[in-house]
Design a protein that fits this description.
Strand content: 5-15%
Helix content: 40-55%
Largest sheet: 7 strands, mixed
Distance between the termini: 53 Å
Structural class: alpha/beta
Bound molecules: zinc ion
Number of helices: 26
CATH topology of one domain: Chitobiase, domain 2
Number of strands: 20
Radius of gyration: 29 Å
Shape: globular
CATH superfamily of one domain: Chitobiase/beta-hexosaminidase domain 2-like
Amino acid sequence: MKSNESFPTTNRRLRFPEALSKISEPVEVDGPSFPSPWPSPQGEGNAISASDQQGAASLMLALWSVLPLPWGEGRGDGEVPIRRTEECQRASARSEALKPAQLKSWCRSGSAASKGVRRLVCLLVGLLSSASTNADLVLADKGQSPYRIVVSANAIASERYAAEELQRYLERLSGARLPIVTDDQPLGSNEILLGENAHLRALHQEIDFAKLRSDGAVLREAKGHLLIAGGNPRGTLNGVYTLLEEKLGVRWFTPELEVVPKLDTVKLPDLDESHIPALPYREVFWTEMMRNADFAARQRLNGHHYKLTEKHGGRAGIYFPFVHSFDMLIPRELYKEHPEYFPLIDGKRAEGYVQRCLSNPEVLKLAIDRVRQWIKDHPEATIITVSQNDTGKWCQCEPCKMLDDAEGSPSASMLRFVNAIAEAIEKDHPNVRIDTLAYQYTRKPPKTIRPRHNVIVRLCSIECCFAHSLESCSSKENQRFRDDIIAWQPIAPSLFVWDYTPNFSHYQQPFPNFDSLQANVRFFVAHGVKGLFEQGNYSGGGQGEMGPLRAYVLAKLVWNPDTDVKRHIDEFLRAYFGQAAPKLQAYLEATHRPVREKGFHAHIFDPPTAQYLGAEAMDEGEKLLDEAEQLAENEAVRFRVQTARLPVWYVKIANNRVTGEARTELIRRFLAIARKAGISNISEGRSLAEWAKRMGE
Ligand SMILES: [Zn+2]
Ligand SMILES: [Zn+2]
């Protein structure tokens, strides 16, 4: 799986104690090596945690006191210790030549008598090889720091902004304000080097910037300096956010709720990690992520709808138009003069919101002219959309039908049309790609027609069950989706996915899809997807059932599909709901139990009568949220709990489980909270005001 290759790659030194932990007894430690409100601020994957390191250090100290040491005094400068015993040197050579698993196996082999010795030697060598070169970096202590932040004198805007962000948050973490200087100055002894610059070169640090692409970064300790070096234009800034979030415990939960731990000592363990996102294009299309560009950048999102500017490194793709562009491409008004441009359905050229006749050469000519005009009018656009309208009604005329029948799917005439446009503009606009959909009737790929290299195919999962993962659900819809993505993967050079994450007919309705979010992102990445658009509640007021949490978890996942989702949910609930968090956790359990235990499927247009919204689950949910409200420690938290309980009321009202005066009162309370929360939409197509009217207000 690609994500495993790129997240986070960690050097052997850091992996060693992981192997060590499996051959030694667990070590009790007092706590993490730097204070943080989070259980595991050390990030993801294979990287050693702070408590692992401290545990290893504690163990070494314990051994130090009882064992004759096989080496002399260290040189005191963090270099490799001298005068090792023969056994130790052999083990050291092995530790460098062998992978941790092999070393572990060596440690476990041998006679019963030698086994214990081997284990101990391995243990010590591992600790020393780690301790010998990885002096912790103390960036700040008691409000003082010897470090300065260095950027190139020619730094791009996002590198300069990365320096400011790092300065800002380090000051809030530690009380120390680090100066920002350029590489015109001579190399100092304690520097945080951002991006490509002269000091980085002077340190002879090899960074493969091409491999980091536009968004990836290396975090590395080198000779007492800290390097945060990323690909242009967003990598270094992403690297700063990765450091702050994954190594120092900063959290950005919503644009208004961030947590910055206060640290007496800002200390980093030895670092040498690459963080390269598996998804080059990442878009969480939730209002929570879109309403503040600085916040979106901190989530390391880079899609079209964020108002990212030059200081954020801009966006990974700028669309024009965004989707469903046939009405703009071949305007409906042409029907009067040219009904033959429009689809033949049941023997008649159809009018209105329909597709177009894609085998008509005049339609192609007009489309190419239009696309050229769009590129001229929108020089910033890097992706031009030529995609079907949001309906069926495709052309059944003889030439269209003949091709589609021969190719086994109406995607054939679509793709031939899109390819022809992509070919026509390629020479003049080599950096522009044409985007189209594999959606509903075009989702199955054609047998022989292949998307050109400058065509993006956006596969859409709209029909699927999201209670269970795309990969595991037994529903026919998910089986068909699996078949289609497997068929597109080898033939589409740029495969994107348009995915769906709340209930779109009822934003205010529990949607039990938390179990499948991670599995699905991983599934997309494993099937070659390069761009992921996670559609959510994108209405002006945002929210929706567990909207802020859903958006947050999705942002973590599109950056790192292997991230620890459970930890993110726990942290978010604790920060957002305070003492009421356990009740919210229990609410999530209650609303997911029916789809887990009874196997009910969940689709994005399910009505309030869906089986998984039965009275038992909803009553339990309401009881838990009642209790949560009692636990809320302040008004802000209480209001968040009240907003989170709207979904169970919504289902109660919709299913007429409350009548008469009580119903009127519940609707009144629902609307009062929803309005105070700024909720604008009750569904994708209906405003809260319209719903209020329907409810008799
Ligand atoms: Zn046709
Ligand atoms: Zn299912």
